[in-house]
Design brief:
418 residues; alpha/beta; Rossmann fold; six-stranded mixed beta sheet; five-stranded parallel beta sheet; 38% helix; 18% strand
Length: 418
């Protein structure tokens, strides 16, 4: 059995400072001192030249608005997609080397607990380069993206922006819980790791696969038969785990020769996944990054393993809805939803990030109750959908073009009331 960190070690085989009190380009006052995930106290004098050693951290830095401060990233930094085109790439997070990082003249280096080797991180510290290590240990659960964001935001001097991003991620993860509320089965899902033609591993319990699969409403098939950590794949595991679906990482299966390699594994054709060609391939960073898009990943996975899921991943436009005033309202294209404080929790639970009516523009959809002053907004050429009350979840969901999400939310509320 391999631990998470040991597993990452196997993969590696295959594969100017501002004065005190100065402000960076975002107006934040430096230096900033934080305690990182290793327990070390780190003082950051400037974020003018950021180097990120891990794709999940790059994703967070960009989401917090500091992409233009990046001068170097590792090759796992595939999102946002333009990053690798705009910024120099220096290698792989699990196999760091000193010289390429130092050559980028960083004022701060970000990585995670799974970056290695430690000797390179120590050498960077000895050279006076602040090293911020974000959480990413064996304790992988659905709070991990939040813990990463909080650490990175603190180091960048934007804790409030970090709080907003964390709340958005938490909300999207919660959408996945709602999306599976009215599904009827819990399929067995097996995550396999391929690298080249020689390395084939199974993810068991106490790995990222456990949180990911269970979060999408599946059963982690290897853990269910007692596999913990990472173990070499063999036919007995396939036949005992008997997965309904097999998850694969895109770069890994491509390095092994393509999907036919997985299809032709001994024993695979005798499993439901093999018999029904239920192989799900995702971008590596999207699948296991546990970063800003974790909620979206869970929804995509849930939809793939639950054919009966009613939660719509996308709203189909245009749509027309007859609201509580008997007005036929047509929504032609995606828009932000602005609503009242009473309706906002329902709108948010239905898969939207609403703003408030008082901040609305004519480009937004306004969702209001009959008791509200909706007519004045309609007179000003706002698109207004009027609903009877905040209790009418099905009506509200249909008005937003997501009747299936309404069904799932009602099912979840009924379960929680039991």
């Amino acid at each position: 059995m391999l631990s998470y960190l040991s597993f990452l070690g196997i993969i590696s085989i295959f594969l100017s400072v501002n004065p005190v009190g100065a402000q960076d380009g975002g107006g934040n006052t430096f230096p900033i001192t934080i305690v990182d995930a290793t327990g070390r106290t780190v003082t950051i004098d400037s974020i003018e030249r950021i180097v990120s050693g891990s794709g999940d951290i790059t994703e967070i830095i960009a989401a917090l608005g500091f992409a233009d401060h990046l001068v170097g990233v590792d090759i796992s930094s595939t999102y946002p997609p333009e990053i690798l085109e705009q910024v120099n790439a220096f290698g792989f997070a699990r196999r760091l080397t000193l010289e390429p990082i130092v050559a980028m003249d960083p004022t701060v280096f970000f990585c995670t607990e799974t970056c290695m080797p430690d000797t390179v991180l120590d050498q960077l510290r000895e050279l006076g380069i602040p090293v911020v290590i974000a959480p990413d240990s064996e304790d992988v659960d659905l709070t991990l993206p939040i813990r990463k964001v909080e650490m990175v935001a603190a180091a960048l001097g934007v804790p409030e922006e970090g709080r907003v991003l964390s709340e958005q991620i938490e909300t999207e993860i919660d959408w996945a819980r709602t999306a599976i509320a009215n599904t009827q089965t819990r399929p067995y899902v097996l995550l396999l790791y391929f690298r080249g033609t020689r390395l084939q591993l199974v993810y068991g319990s106490k790995t990222p696969a456990e949180a990911l699969i269970e979060g999408a409403g599946g059963i982690e098939a290897a853990g269910e038969i007692g596999i913990e950590g990472y173990v070499p794949l063999n036919p007995e595991i396939l036949l005992t785990a008997y997965p309904d679906y097999v998850l694969l990482m895109q770069s890994g299966i491509e390095s092994a020769g393509g999907l036919d390699v997985a299809r032709s594994l001994q024993g695979m054709s005798q499993t439901p996944a093999g018999q029904n060609d239920n192989f799900l391939i995702y971008d590596d960073q999207y699948l296991l990054g546990f970063s800003t898009r974790t909620g979206q990943m869970l929804l995509d996975l849930a939809a793939d393993i639950h054919p009966d899921m009613t939660w719509e991943l996308e709203v189909e436009y245009p749509y027309t809805f007859t609201d509580a005033t008997s007005e036929n309202v047509t929504v032609h294209m995606p828009r932000f939803v602005a609503t009242t404080s009473e309706l906002a929790p329902i709108v948010r639970a239905l898969g939207f990030h609403p703003t408030m009516v008082e901040d609305a523009t004519t480009d937004d959809i306004l969702l209001m109750q009959l008791e509200d002053d909706w007519q004045s907004y309609r007179d000003k050429d706002f698109t207004v959908i009027v609903v009877p009350s905040a209790e009418e979840i099905s009506f509200i969901a249909s008005g937003l073009g997501v009747a299936g999400r309404g069904e799932a939310l009602i099912a979840r509320k009924q379960q929680e009331a039991q």
